[in-house]
Amino acid sequence: MATIPRTARLVAVETKLFLREPAAVFFTIMLPVGLLLALGLSIPDFRKPDPLLGGQRPVDAQFPALMVLLSVMMLALSLLPTTLVTYRERGMLRRMSTTPVRPSSLLAAQLVIHVGVAVAATTLTLGLGHLALDMPAPPAFWMFAGVFVLGSTTLFAIGLCLAAVTPNSRVVQGAGAAVLFPLLFLGGMWLPRQVMPEVLRRISDFTPSGAFGQGLTDALAGQAPQPLHLAVLAGWAVVAGLMAARLFRWQ
User: Fold this and answer.
1) Cβ burial, residue 23 (10 Å; 0-12/13-18/19+)
2) How far apart are CA 103 and CA 95, in angstroms?
3) Where do transmembrane segments lie in this chain (predicted)?
């Protein structure tokens, strides 16, 4: 029973440390929200119905889905693995193993913080988008929430894999970028999925970012996510989670 209060105290301490990093707050919360508002307000075409989107505006579903994807991916593939590898590199996890506060408590605290930031960033993105751009609320909230939880679980499992196999903070930053940017591209960040060549779009369907981004877009548009994308996310989550559990080292 004492583990829960210890983890709660760790969450409070680690949250303060996270908030002291302006870059972390900016890139995971302010950047996605700022991009949504800046581009949505400054580019008239983003507020016009698009035949390729079934008559919806890009700011109704596609663009906010990409901003949610961007936020979660930066947290899961950059910040979380870098933090854990840095702690391991400095011997903090090894020293914690000799105290009543187990290293697993720190891992749990980090996951709670990063998931909480992802939820906060998503809430701000949808809330401010609704106020400033008249974005509709998710028509089926629980459907959107289910896709968000499944996709976030998948990406954080991949982030834990990165933390498990990289030896130091310098390497994990490079590895995170090497994974992050191709996945952002395949998720439709620079080339929308609807205009991708058929072969590239099919490849995107089987990536965690492509499946997650399209699932979010479908849910925000009031459509049921495609079973293929849900299966892809579940498969990646299981494989990455098992690998992370098997390979993760505390020292």
Assistant:
1) exposed
2) 9
3) 23-43, 63-85, 106-128, 140-164, 171-191, 228-248
User: 6-64 pLDDT, tens per residue?
Assistant: 677 878 888 887 888 888 888 888 899 999 999 889 988 888 888 877 788 889 888 99
Where does 44-168 have alpha helices with state H? 62-74, 80-89, 92-96, 103-133, 141-165
How many C-alpha atoms does 180 have within 13 Å on its Cβ side? 22
Alpha carbons within 13 angstroms on the beta-carbon side of residue 77 total: 25
Torsion of CA 64, 67, 69, 74, to 10 degrees: -170
**Contact (Cβ atoms closer than 8 angstroms) between residue 143 and residue 101:** no
DSSP state of 136: P
Residue 79 per-residue DSSP state: I
Q: How far is CA 59 from CA 33, 36, 76, 151, 165, in A?
A: 12, 8, 24, 21, 38
pTM: 0.90
- The HSE-up count of residue 235 (CA atoms within 13 Å, CB side) is 12
